[in-house]
Design a protein that fits this description.
Blueprint (H helix, E strand, L loop, with lengths): L5 H43 L22 H15 L2 E3 L7 H7 L14 H16 L23 H44 L3 E4 L7 E5 H12 L13 H17 L5 H7 L8 E6 L10 E6 L6 H10 L13 H10 L5 H21 L1
Parallel strand pairs: 1-3
Antiparallel strand pairs: 2-3, 4-5
Length: 370
């Protein structure tokens, strides 16, 4: 029995997986079409003739053959699920158009693909893929010591060269298809970008994110400013000052860091990381609490410390104190909690369970009060 090379085997395996994937999608599509046809046929027959209930002697409600619900209930559930799944919440007086809603439905963190293919990066990725496929070890770190005009050649067999030519043809065909597809997608995304720019120019609304979860919230700017002023008027948390102490605080922190560096408490790298330059005051903004509908959606204040005086110092201290966070009595997440509960040897499990229930109840009430 003649064995095939690894490149041919990988190619055959990818072709087989592609065929199986296409066949499975065709089968799923066929069954879904048949199922929808049967549902429509049954609903159409039931709507043409009234079926009397033998108990109440009244027309029986038409039930969906899959969900086992009436058509009216199915419509209500569908509308409710669409409202709950809609990530865009409009709390303003401004009415969003369909194009504006579709532009915001992907969220504020959505990254759109570029309109052009990155040719140099694509070539580098294909060369790296081929080198890993052949297990070719290249001394990348020594390239900087070589001349730019020097050509690096590798001794390849005829089979490897033929595989490289096939890979180049496949890459060229993929590149042509990708360029055409990216151009089509780019035209569609231009409309989305223009819609988002028009929303940013609308000074009567604020586009932000909710307090819990992910999504998009539209608020009236007047209502947003009113709620933020109410938060800032709390003199127990905020104090009004007539000067900006940012520059004084920055100079004081630099002098303190120089003393720590001179005495050997911090290294040069830590000093560069924590030394502030071009600092600015902290920014505050509010995110609406959509889960508190009865309280007219209050705002949760969020303080952004980016580029503040102590921003770099906090990053340095987080790196320094990271070793102290490894403690066997600290619970990272719920999976770690379950893992430690299983490993622990409990004496009275009923007492432990009752204490856990009481703790979870108090924790749930605390979360609701926030």
């Amino acid at each position: 029995m003649q064995s095939v090379s690894r490149i041919v085997y990988i190619r055959l395996q990818s072709i087989a997986e592609g065929i199986i994937k296409r066949k499975m999608s065709e089968i799923e599509r066929t069954h879904e079409t048949k199922l929808n046809g049967l549902r429509e046929k049954k609903l159409r027959r039931a709507s043409q003739r009234q079926i009397l209930d033998p108990v109440t002697n009244r027309p029986r409600q038409i039930l969906d053959p899959v969900t086992n619900l009436s058509q009216e209930m199915c419509d209500q559930v569908t509308n409710l699920s669409q409202e709950m799944c809609d990530p865009v919440t409009n709390l303003s007086k401004y009415t969003l158009t369909d194009s504006e809603h579709n532009a915001l439905i992907n969220g504020l963190d959505h990254v759109y693909p570029p309109e052009k293919l990155d040719q140099p990066q694509f070539v580098c990725n294909m060369e790296y893929f081929y080198a890993r496929l052949l297990n070719v070890r290249t001394a990348y770190r020594h390239y900087e010591q070589k001349s730019a005009t020097e050509v690096v050649r590798h001794q390849l067999t005829s089979l490897q060269l033929s595989a490289a030519s096939e890979l180049r043809e496949t890459a060229n065909s993929f590149r042509k298809v990708a360029e055409s597809e990216l151009k089509k997608i780019g035209v569609e995304h231009r409309k989305t970008f223009s819609t988002l720019r028009s929303l940013t120019k609308n000074k009567s609304i604020i586009v932000t994110r909710p307090d819990k979860g992910r999504g998009v919230v539209i608020m009236d700017r007047e209502d947003y400013v009113k709620k933020m002023n109410k938060i800032l008027d709390d003199r127990s948390a905020f104090t009004l000052i007539n000067y900006d102490p940012t520059l004084d605080n920055e100079n004081e922190l630099i002098r303190f860091l120089l003393v720590l560096k001179k005495e050997g408490f911090i290294s040069d790298q830590e000093f560069k990381l924590s030394c502030p330059t071009g600092s600015r005051p902290a920014r505050i903004y509010g995110v609406p609490k959509l889960h508190k509908k009865g309280e007219d959606y209050p705002l949760r204040p969020v303080m952004s410390a980016t580029k503040t005086v102590a921003y770099g110092l906090g990053k340095m201290l987080a790196t320094r104190l990271n070793t102290l966070r490894t403690n066997p009595y600290i619970i990272k997440d719920r999976f770690d909690f379950v893992r430690k509960i299983r490993k622990s040897e409990l004496g009275d499990k009923k007492w432990y369970l009752s204490m856990l229930r009481a703790f979870l109840l108090r924790f749930h009430l605390l979360i609701l009060s926030i």
